[in-house]
């Protein structure tokens, strides 16, 4: 079996209905963690519905786990305020990638799996995991926990490339 390098591309698309942590608004940014890897988006000033469209890359290692997200309000003179947290279990995405390999799907667009919101996840609505021209991707809306309101939209892409020369 060929050794494969797996990269998880997390595109933090936008936030909706984030909570106010300053006088009238907030200056949100997102911290994304996968295992011991951490990345964060830029700060969007004075916005409760920010659009980041930022791609953050992580290397997948075994055992596969959970993608953790925290939203903060950037403050100049004191510690940043928490604006909620969320998580995404990566197991459905990994299972869909295995199904893609079994079915040998490499072109066009195919829905591999649907994931529905329940008490075991933070999904705000149903999410499809698709194979688009060989890439496995999932568009998700995640509810923020620990706050009155707020959702994050992400696009997750699993990139698999052979580590050995062709």
Automatic annotation (TrEMBL):
InterPro entries xrefs: C2_dom, C2_domain_sf, CAR1-11
Protein location: Cell membrane; Nucleus
Signal peptide (UniProt feature, chain positions): none
Coiled coil region boundaries: none
Keywords for this protein: Abscisic acid signaling pathway, Calcium, Cell membrane, GTPase activation, Lipid-binding, Lyase, Membrane, Metal-binding, Nucleus
EC number: 4.1.1.65
GO cellular component: nucleus; plasma membrane
Gene Ontology biological-process annotations: abscisic acid-activated signaling pathway
Keyword Transport appears in the UniProt entry: no
Residue ranges occupied by any C2 domain in the UniProt entry: 1-103
SUPFAM superfamilies, per database record: C2 domain (Calcium/lipid-binding domain, CaLB)
Superkingdom, natural source: Eukaryota
GO function terms (MF aspect): GTPase activator activity; lipid binding; metal ion binding; phosphatidylserine decarboxylase activity
Family that this chain belongs to: Belongs to the plant CAR protein family.
Name of the molecule in the record: ADP-ribosylation factor GTPase-activating protein AGD12
Organism per entry: Glycine soja
């Amino acid at each position: 079996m060929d050794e494969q390098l797996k990269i998880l591309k997390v595109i933090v698309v936008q936030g909706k209905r984030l909570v106010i942590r300053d006088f009238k608004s907030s200056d949100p940014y997102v911290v994304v963690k996968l295992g011991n890897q951490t990345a964060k988006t830029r700060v969007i000033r004075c916005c409760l519905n920010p659009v980041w469209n930022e791609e953050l890359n992580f290397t997948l290692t075994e055992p596969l786990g959970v993608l953790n997200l925290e939203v903060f309000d950037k403050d100049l003179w004191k510690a940043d305020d928490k604006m909620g947290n969320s998580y995404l279990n990566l197991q459905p995405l990994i299972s869909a990638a295995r199904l893609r390999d079994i079915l040998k799907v490499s072109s066009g667009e195919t829905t591999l799996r649907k994931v529905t919101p329940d008490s075991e996840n933070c999904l705000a609505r149903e999410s499809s995991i698709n194979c688009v021209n060989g890439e496995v991707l999932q568009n998700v809306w995640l509810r923020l926990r620990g706050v009155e309101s707020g959702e994050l939209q992400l696009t997750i892409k699993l990139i698999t490339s052979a580590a050995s020369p062709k």
